[in-house]
Amino acid sequence: MGVREWGLLVLLSVLWGGAFFFVGVAVPEIPPFTLVALRVFCALPFLWGLLMIRGQFFLIGSAPFFAFVAMGLLNNAVPQVLIAWAQGTVSAGVASILNATTPLFTVLLAHVLIREEKMTPGKCLGVVLGFSGVVVMTGLDALDGIGLSVLAQGAVLVASLSYAMAAIYGRYLAQQDGVSPLIVTVGSITGAALVLVPLALALETPWTLPVPGIPAWGAVLGLAVLSTVCAYLLFYNLLDRVGASNASLVTFLIPVSAVVLGFLFLEEQLEPRHGAGMALIALGLAVLDGRLIRGRRPSPLQGEGAG
C-alpha cells in the first residue's frame, strides 16, 4: 500500500473507533438492537440521496439483490447483533481481543479464496504482531476472562469470522463490472436494514420506550453518517484498491483510535500499556507493509498513492 492507502486506513479506523464514543452516549437511552437498527436505517436516506446525486441510481440492479442482502448480513446484521448480545456478559477488553482476530481469519480465507492474496511469512508475522499489540493495549489482565463465558465469547469470534467473510465477498463484489464502492455500500446497508429493523421491532418494541434526549439522537446521527455512510464508502473503496487482507487491518487500528479519542475528548488517561501496544501494532503494520523487511523504497508501481 502507498501512503494514500495507509492514510485512508487510519481515517477509517478513526470513523469506526468513533463509533465506541457514539454508542457510549446513546446506549443508556437506546437498547442495543434498536441502536444498531437506527444506525443503518438513518444511514439510508444519505446513501440513496448520494446515489441519485451521482447519477448511479440505475446501476443498483447491476448485481443480484441477494448479493447485497448477503453482504448486509455478513458485514452488519450478523456481527453487530452477535456483539450486542455478547456485551451483556463479555468485558470490553475480552471483546476487543476477540474482535482483533478478524485479520487472522481474513488472511486465512484470502489465502484459500483469493489468488492474489496468498499467505507469506511476513504477512503472518505482521498479523501476529498487530494482534499482540491489541492484547497489550487492552491489558494482559483481560486474558483472565478468556474462556469464562464461552458462548458469548464464541459469538464475538463468529462475528469476527463474519467480518472476514464480508471482506472477501466485498472484494469480489467490488471487482464486478459496473459495481462501484457506492453501489456495494448502498446495497449492503439496505440489506442490513431489511434484517435489523424488523428484529429490533420484534425484540425491543422501541415505541414503548421513553423518547431519547438530544445527545442520544446526536450520537445516532454520528453513527449513521460518520461511522456508517462515510466509513463503509471508505471501506469498500479500500477493498477494491488494496484487497481484503489489507483492508481488514483496520481492526488493529480501531483500538488505537478509540484510546486516542477517549484521551482527547473524554479525559481518559493514557497508560504505558497503551504506548507499548501502539508500538507493537505499528511494528506489525510496518512488517505487513514490507518496506521494513526490504530495506528499500518501493518500486514505481508501489509508489505513494498507487492503487
Map the helices and strands.
Layout: H1 3-26, H2 32-53, H3 65-86, H4 92-99, H5 102-113, H6 121-138, H7 150-174, H8 181-204, H9 214-242, H10 244-247, H11 250-265, H12 272-289, H13 291-294
Structural description of this entry:
It is found in: Membrane. InterPro entries: AA-Vitamin_Transporters (IPR050638), EamA_dom (IPR000620), EmrE-like (IPR037185). Its main location: membrane. The chain has helices at residues 3-26, 32-53, 65-86, 92-99, 102-113, 121-138, 150-174, 181-204, 214-242, 244-247, 250-265, 272-289, 291-294. It has 307 residues and is mostly helical. It has one domain (3-289). The longest helix is centred in the C-terminal third of the chain and has 29 residues, at 214-242. It is globular and about 50 Å long. It starts with a helix and ends in a 13-residue tail after the last helix.
